[in-house]
Amino acid sequence: MEKILERIEGELKKAFLACGYEERFAKAVLSNRPDLCEYQCNGAMAAAKAYRKKPMEIAAQVVENLGEGEVFSLCQAVMPGFINLKLDEGFMADYLNRMAVDGRLGLERQKEPKTIVVDYGGPNVAKPLHVGHLRSAVIGESIKRMGLALGHRMVGDIHLGDWGLQMGLIIEELRDRKPDLPYFDEGFEGNYPEESPFTISELEEIYPTASLKAKFKAEDARKAGMAEEEVAKREAESAAFAERAHLATRKLQEGYKPFMAIWQHIMRVSRADLEKNYRNLNVFFELWKGESDAQKYIPGLIEDLKAKGLAYESQGALVVDIGQPGDSKELPPCIVQKSDGAALYATSDLGTILEREKELHPDAYIYIADKRQELHFTQVFRVAKKAGFVAPDKPMSFLGFGTMNGKDGKPFKTRDGGVMRLEHLMDDINQAGYQRIMENRTATEEEARNTAKIVGLAALKYGDLSNQAAKDYIFDIDRFVSFEGNTGPYILYTIVRIKSILNKDKEQGKDAGKGLILPAASDGEKELMLEIARYNDVMESAFEEKAPHKLCQYIYDLSNDFNRFYHDTKILSEEDLGKRKSYIRLITLAKDVLCACIQVLGFEAPERM
User: Fold this and answer.
1) Contact 65/100 with Cβ under 8 angstroms?
2) What contacts 50, CB < 8 A, 6 or more positions away?
3) What element of type H or E holds 121?
4) Is the pTM of this model over 0.85?
């Protein structure tokens, strides 16, 4: 279905061409003076320079050719050359009626849908999700869902950290705790147990213990008063354990069967826990790949980079220059192999790209990670294109996000200063939502708890997504769960309010839901209609700009327009059945648009609050 802005610009193009001007000047924007007009065209200002005429003269000519036909109720040229436009009420009613019967609410499917890989996970196995994983998950999921809504084939990949030193650390810590396990018996010849030798809780305790054991800090121990003899002993033990962990990692990566069996246990136990926690966030991945999947591509890509003369030795390491003409500053080369022959994150990411090119043939890539990773991804993208792993014109985008901070402006921590687990954060916001719901005292305990989970998720995700991704933001649980202001619960409350009106309409037996939307009879009604009509344009632009916050702003504005209309209009007490049917049809469409948007943002609305 044609976007409202396309229709407006279509009329403007005809008028500009009729006056002898190029159609490229026929651009329309939402007016920043809604008291004067609804849309505005500033093309006469630009055309004046090209045609050496006064802007007002061009604007007057265009307005004369536009007239006030079926699209516009007002076309006005104002100094110094703006064209003010208001849409005809009948045209608007017709547009919304077509939206209402369209199965996609007027959202256009792409004529040439693309396969787009979205890399938005990145957790390490054997470790719990914490608040640092929140932003990549909710931003990535929303962008993926926007692309799906527009008809693209979106492939979300979690890209697990599953092949580094942490695996060797876990293996050796497990050896110290349970030396009698068959994995550590070199003479064992049977099948390894199918049951894991650890639970997720044990695994999450094993890794940090092993990590600390391998990183004994002698200086800190001395400051704490530890005797020098004990320091020397602990230092030697730590070095020996670290060496064992490195050896175990290398043996694992060489395919040593006992350690591969342990690794498979780690993967199964970790994935089950990760799936549960991501499911609670309403986040899902099409692919559960990890760094391990890319390893088979690394030897070949290293040789390829050498053969093409791109990789050269620098201080013992193998590097690739990434500088390009036009760079504003010198960028360091990408290290693809350390002096000891080990691969790095960049090498793993390049191997993953080769795998994706082979298996998925994507048209574009979107990577979502902390904005401090920008240089890393710049290096990876440039090496991939320089080496011909991907086509030079293939879009490879990095969306870097800021940090979630506490009220003190510092990265969000627990009360004791630690990194908060994501599931604990969700518990806290669910409890806050429950307390807010129980203030009304109309829900049962069970209903309140269930509703609190829905409201809590909306509060958490909207609180994040309503901020521009690249910016840091303050996590304020009290503000996020508020039913007032620019919050997720306010959006849900608006939807629930509409549902309540529609239920009462059915109970009264008016059958008003089958009516047609009539031309607006008030300013508030028209403002609501104008906002609804922007749905397809906002969805498309938010996806193109990778900006979920624009979709949040849209549904906040739409909710405000509905609530103003609701307070100014007697919907259920309207005696004119035609008007009542029109109102019901209009607010039904508003609800459907709001629900479609929050589904894309990754949450839903309850039946009541």
Assistant:
1) no
2) 22, 25
3) none
4) yes
